[in-house]
């Protein structure tokens, strides 16, 4: 069976963010790019599922500027994925991205399970997996921290509010969005890295997918850096004095009590 | 003027504060406000929905909608949306909102702006501001090619005024849509906490490795009880098994936006800041004056958490109960 994993390349959390002059995005010069951390859980679960089911294959798929997103696809190949596809496109929103992912998965003959991350840490949107599931007309579950498979069904655990969990059963094919806790992603091995370097990554132009321009539904503008925070006010005295001073400040100055 | 549809949520038969925020913002915009409420207890909150500014409320009182199921919720919601024909939809960026509305948007061929912290409605138009790169930047989201503009707001971002009991909404009941479900909710395993979820909490008391051992979370729980706060944690203590993952704040945990965040024995690593830097007021307690958390804090206390937290609990008790 075919297992697909959608991975997004995002700026590393430690990267310093600068705004582009037109304020619609960021200045990408000097950015360190990594695979979205939640997508590592997705890749790991896909590999485990493949290894438990003989004759299966893991396909990784990413939308973005080809020149850089292939690096994250190579990381996924080095972890043990079998095939990789890059959809070369830029300036797309979550809707158009989900459409493109769904179109290519369909064109490749569909998949039994499609893994994604629960969200991408740059846009923090958690929308692509659900939209893609709708375009594929298959069920989905987000924020998944446990996964079990039979050919007819997948049973997952979904983390919801207040530390509660839902046990959800879906008919396959299904979309599963991974949360932390699902597994421990493996590191790429040296032989894996060598092998990944030699693999051909299939390239598809977004423009060739015939997705209309009206499928871009949102645009960003006026991107700004957060306002400078006033300097911290350090309290003094012994612990009793600090405690009563803090309560006073929270009540009278910050007015949050 | 058009219609704004607000998807409401309730907890234990009470309308959630996040829903009041949305209803009041929609009412202030001058548009007709249409609310939606699902589940066998949908009727319990219609008065509160009216008091908070809705003109109409559409309810589907069906036990099949008591637990969230993306397929049944999407089908029922899209049915009502098609009847109401709103130009704007507001919902909370809760676990239900974030799961449901992208699917609904795809079905309606329209756009969704997720995880927003500011909202501007002017007639049929809406723009929203959302944090990007874990709060390291902010962007305005503008809709295009979107017949219905869907905005998902983080909790605690909009003001809530006292409800007006003279305001009422007309109630329309709908039969549940029949759906061939491919998704089954088999079981709901209750969480350990009856407190507000971290993503909705107005006050959070969070602990890190500076608490030394799991048992010392008791002093945080005591402080939280006095403040009506929810307890959070750093990843270091989650990974050490002191507390459950549902309590983790940060890049691989929850993004929170309380009025007050008290960080106890937390160093302030960038991945932790990613989840909590949207807090209005941040208090840091740490025995290392050079801990990075102090660069983000509003108020700082250098000292031993085990000594200061119980003293704080006493002070808050005095201040809040006299
Ligand atoms: C208004 C707007 C303008 C944008 N402009 C640009 C731009 O100019 N250049 C640019 O590069 N991006 C741009 N983006 C990002 C854009 O490519 C999509 O929004 C993005 O791919 C979806 O990310 P998300 O954070 O919404 O994903 P989420 O929904 O948070 O991600 C969930 C999961 O979906 C999968 N996924 C998400 N995105 C991709 C992807 N691209 N490929 C494969 N899998 C994916 C991953 O598994 C991920 O874990 C823009 C986004 C918006 C909303
Ligand atoms: C990919 C990735 C994702 C991550 N995601 C997250 C995330 O979501 N959330 C998160 O929190 N972290 C995350 N981390 C981990 C993060 O980098 C830090 O390791 C973690 O936040 C440290 O937790 P801590 O502050 O509790 O512990 P430490 O860094 O050990 O800090 C303990 C602090 O307590 C202070 N202290 C010690 N004794 C006392 C005392 N008696 N009284 C008062 N203070 C005392 C010390 O001075 C120190 O500042 C992530 C890391 C990576 C690589």
Features of the shown structure:
heterodimer, A: 257 residues, alpha/beta, Rossmann fold, nine-stranded mixed sheet, two-stranded antiparallel ribbon, 6 helices, 13 strands, 28% strand, B: 322 residues, seven-stranded parallel sheet, five-stranded parallel sheet, 9 helices, 18 strands, binds flavin-adenine dinucleotide
Give the helix/strand layout:
The complex is a heterodimer of chains A (257) and B (322).
Chain A: E1 2-6, E2 9-11, E3 33-35, H1 37-52, E4 57-64, H2 66-79, E5 83-88, H3 94-107, E6 113-117, H4 128-136, E7 140-149, E8 153-159, E9 165-171, E10 174-178, H5 190-198, E11 202-205, E12 218-224, E13 233-234, H6 239-253
Parallel strand pairs in A: 1-4, 1-6, 4-5, 5-11, 6-10, 7-10
Antiparallel strand pairs in A: 2-3, 7-8, 8-9
Chain B: E1 3-7, E2 10-11, E3 14-15, H1 17-28, E4 32-38, H2 46-51, E5 56-60, H3 70-84, E6 88-92, H4 95-108, E7 112-116, E8 118-122, E9 125-132, E10 137-143, E11 149-153, E12 170-173, E13 183-189, E14 203-207, H5 217-227, E15 230-233, H6 235-239, E16 260-264, H7 270-276, E17 281-286, H8 293-296, E18 299-302, H9 305-321
Parallel strand pairs in B: 1-4, 1-6, 4-5, 5-12, 6-11, 7-11, 14-15, 14-16, 16-17, 17-18
Antiparallel strand pairs in B: 2-3, 8-9, 9-10
Helix pairs in contact in B: 3-4, 5-9
The complex binds flavin-adenine dinucleotide (2 copies).
One flavin-adenine dinucleotide is lined by residues 6-8, 25, 36, 38-39, 42, 62-64, 90-94, 97, 101, 116-117, 119-120, 122-123, 125-129, 218-220 of chain A.
Number of helices of chain B: 9
H/I helix tally of chain A: 6
| Widest β-sheet, arrangement of strands of chain B | 7-11-6-1-4-5-12
Following the backbone from N to C, one meets helices and strands of chain B in this order, namely EEEHEHEHEHEEEEEEEEHEHEHEHEH
CATH topology label of the largest domain in chain A: Rossmann fold
Order of helices and strands of chain A: EEEHEHEHEHEEEEHEEEH
CATH homologous superfamily name of the largest domain in chain A? HUPs
The fraction of residues in strands of chain B falls at 25-35%
Give the % helix of chain A. 25-40%
The value of Rg of chain A in angstroms is 22 Å
CATH architecture of the largest domain in chain A: 3-Layer(aba) Sandwich
Distance between the termini of chain B: 48 Å
Structural class from helices and strands of chain A?
alpha/beta
- Please give the alpha-carbon distance between the first and last residues of chain A: 57 Å
DSSP, total strands of chain B: 18
């Amino acid at each position: 069976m075919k297992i697909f994993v959608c991975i997004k390349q995002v700026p590393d959390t430690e990267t310093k963010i600068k705004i582009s002059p037109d304020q619609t995005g960021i200045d990408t010069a000097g950015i360190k790019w990594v695979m979205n951390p939640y997508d590592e859980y997705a890749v790991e679960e896909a590999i485990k599922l493949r290894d438990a089911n003989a004759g299966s294959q893991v396909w990784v798929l990413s939308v973005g500027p080809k020149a850089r997103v292939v690096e994250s696809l190579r990381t996924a190949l080095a972890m043990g994925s079998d095939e990789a596809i890059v959809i070369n496109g830029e300036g797309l929103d979550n809707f158009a991205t989900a459409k493109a992912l769904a179109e290519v998965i369909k064109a490749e003959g569909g998949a039994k399970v499609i893994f994604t991350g629960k969200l991408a840490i740059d846009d923090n949107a958690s929308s692509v997996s659900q939209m893609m599931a709708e375009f594929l007309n298959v069920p989905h579950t987000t924020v998944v921290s446990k996964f079990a498979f039979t050919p007819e069904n997948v049973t997952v655990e979904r983390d919801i509010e207040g530390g509660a969990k839902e046990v959800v059963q879906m008919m396959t094919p299904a979309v599963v969005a991974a949360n932390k806790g699902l597994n421990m992603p493996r590191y790429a091995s040296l032989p894996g890295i060598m092998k990944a370097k030699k693999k051909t990554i299939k390239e598809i132009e977004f423009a060739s997918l015939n997705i209309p321009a009206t499928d871009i539904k949102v645009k960003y503008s006026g991107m700004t850096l957060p306002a400078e925070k006033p300097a911290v006010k350090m309290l003094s005295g012994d612990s009793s004095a600090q405690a009563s001073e803090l309560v006073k400040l929270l009540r009278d100055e910050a007015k949050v009590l | 003027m058009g219609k704004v549809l607000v998807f409401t949520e309730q907890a234990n038969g009470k309308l959630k504060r996040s829903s009041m925020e949305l209803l009041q913002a929609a009412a202030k915009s001058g548009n007709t406000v249409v609310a939606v409420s699902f589940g066998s207890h949908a009727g319990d909150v219609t008065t509160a929905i009216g008091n908070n500014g809705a003109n109409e409320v559409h309810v589907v009182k069906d036990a099949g909608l008591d637990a969230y199921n993306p397929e049944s919720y999407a089908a029922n919601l899209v049915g009502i949306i098609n009847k109401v024909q709103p130009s704007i939809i507001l919902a909370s960026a809760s676990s239900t909102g974030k799961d449901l509305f992208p699917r609904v948007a795809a079905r309606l061929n329209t756009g969704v702006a997720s995880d927003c912290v500011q909202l501007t409605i002017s007639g049929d138009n809406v723009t929203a501001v959302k944090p990007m790169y874990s709060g390291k930047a902010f962007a305005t989201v503008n809709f295009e090619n979107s017949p219905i503009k869907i905005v998902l707001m983080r909790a605690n971002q909009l003001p809530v005024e006292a409800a007006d009991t003279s305001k009422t909404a007309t109630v329309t009941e709908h039969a549940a849509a029949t759906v061939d479900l491919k998704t089954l909710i088999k079981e709901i395993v209750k969480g350990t906490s009856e407190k507000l979820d971290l993503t909705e909490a107005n006050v959070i008391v969070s602990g890190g490795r500076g608490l030394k051992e799991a048992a010392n979370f008791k002093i945080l729980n005591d402080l939280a009880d006095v403040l009506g706060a929810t307890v959070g944690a750093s990843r270091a203590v989650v990974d050490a098994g002191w507390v459950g993952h549902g309590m983790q704040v940060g890049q691989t945990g929850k993004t929170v936006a309380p009025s007050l965040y008290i960080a106890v024995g937390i160093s302030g690593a960038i991945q932790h800041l990613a989840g909590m830097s949207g807090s209005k007021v941040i208090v840091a307690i740490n025995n290392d004056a050079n801990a990075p958390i102090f660069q983000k804090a509003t108020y700082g206390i250098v000292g031993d958490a085990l000594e200061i937290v119980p003293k704080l609990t006493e002070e808050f008790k005095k201040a809040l109960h006299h």
